[in-house]
Design a protein that fits this description.
249 residues, mainly alpha, two-stranded antiparallel ribbon
Length: 249
Amino acid sequence: MIPEILGFEDSSYLLMMIIGIFVAFVVAALYFKKLKYNKNNIIDLLICSSFAVAIGVIFAILFENLYEIGSGHGFVFKLTFFGGLAGGVLGFILVYVIARKHMSFKFIDVLTIAPGCIAIAHAIGRIGCFLSGCCYGAVTTEWYGVTFYGDTVKRIPTQLFESIFLFILAALLIYLAFKKEFKYNFVIYLGAYSIFRFLIEFLRDDERGHFVGALSPSQIWCIVLFVLAVPLFFIVKKFLVEKKTDEQE
């Protein structure tokens, strides 16, 4: 693999993360353009999203270090996806609420396209994990096994498996947003990703700690997200979809 594609440690992961965020911003901007939002509306969205990304990164680092400290390790500059997702969503909502009077876009429109953007950014980011050799799978002798940088055995490339799944999920969510104007994409995203991630965690072999029995911290978060998908459906239906329908009538 190529962990230092730009010549410094973890640069491959950093590069893929930046590319993923950029692609996500482009998809969101194109969706807003499709909805006939003007340039200023799109700029408002990108500014709000940038704050959300920054807060997400902070949360991702904090969540990872909670695991590290709990395992008796010191501070590390690493990110965990679930921390980034929680921080990003909460950060976007916080910024939107604070600056709502100055935001010229509807929250339901963001909720429609955001899951596809998150999924495609995550898919590209997982390629960075593959290049860096982190988040690797268990040892295997199968044809698809990969020997990562600094390792001596072949392992399951769980990063690529997850990336492929996320690209497929992103394509579905983006299609539903652009072509069907489907408003429950976040519900689909939380349900589908939490199930997939819960299962693929059994194939992982990097040190992630354990919370309950053989379950990893990520699997606990998967259960939480899957449960949250149910009330989220009714929240979106009652407070966003039905409200928008009433306003149009």
